[in-house]
Design brief:
The chain is mainly alpha-helical. The chain has one domain. Helices cover 82% and strands 0% of the residues. The chain has eight helices and no strands. Helix 2 packs antiparallel against helix 4. The radius of gyration is 24 Å and the shape is elongated. The protein starts with a helix and ends with a helix. The model has no long low-confidence stretch (mean pLDDT 79).
Length: 211
């Protein structure tokens, strides 16, 4: 796996393959009607909002993987001007200033913070997905229990309507919970993968500057 990171755009290619599998899964879910239920059966539209946020965050994840792949390439040509000013400035300071190991470690900590800050929000969004799923659960139960206020008699027609409204609220609760959990887990896996790649990038930089 480490050799994959050091190959040209290896991380981006690996993530692209995983994205292809994910798109196939989404296509299959649409084929069996699951996506239709998420979008149209969910009266709260929380599931649709979760999917939109998940899609935008996944696109940002892909871009972060691209920049990280570029940083692995830039690490091999730090003697030349590269497209990453952050890496170029870091190595310029190391090479052109008389610094000891403590200063190198301080600069490395700054670089670590700046590299991770570019995608740290992804973990927050993953946590947000779970909370939005719980919000949809609450909304679903409110819809389900709110239908009881229409119970004025025990007529069979009224009971059928009541059961239909209660089942609608239950569907909202279950669909939003499931959507929030799945997207939250998927985003956590994605950004943990990116975090692992950055760990290896920083280890390579430590070896390069002999810390």
């Amino acid at each position: 796996m480490q050799s994959l990171l050091k190959s040209a755009y290896g991380l981006l290619l690996f993530v692209s393959m995983l994205t292809g599998v994910e798109l196939f899964i989404w296509f299959y879910l649409g084929k069996i009607g699951f996506l239709h239920n998420l979008i149209w059966v969910d009266a709260s539209h929380v599931s649709l909002f979760i999917i939109v946020v998940y899609t935008l965050t996944s696109l940002r994840f892909m871009f972060s993987c691209y920049t990280t792949s570029r940083q692995f390439l830039d690490l091999d040509k730090v003697e030349e001007p590269c497209e990453n000013p952050l890496m170029q400035t870091f190595f310029y300071q190391i090479k052109n200033l008389s610094v000891g190991n403590e200063t190198k470690l301080s600069l490395l900590e700054v670089l670590d913070t700046r590299l991770r800050s570019k995608y740290a929000f992804g973990f927050l969004v993953a946590d947000l997905m779970l909370k939005l799923g719980l919000l949809g659960t609450v909304i679903g139960f409110i819809i389900m229990l709110g239908s009881l206020s229409n119970l004025n008699s025990v007529d069979i027609t009224v009971m059928q309507t009541l059961l239909a409204e209660m089942s609608s609220g239950m569907r909202v609760a279950l669909y939003t919970t499931l959507t929030g959990m799945l997207t939250g887990i998927a985003l956590n896996l994605k950004f943990n993968l990116l975090d692992w790649a950055v760990d290896h990038l920083l280890n390579d930089i430590k070896e390069r500057i002999s810390v």
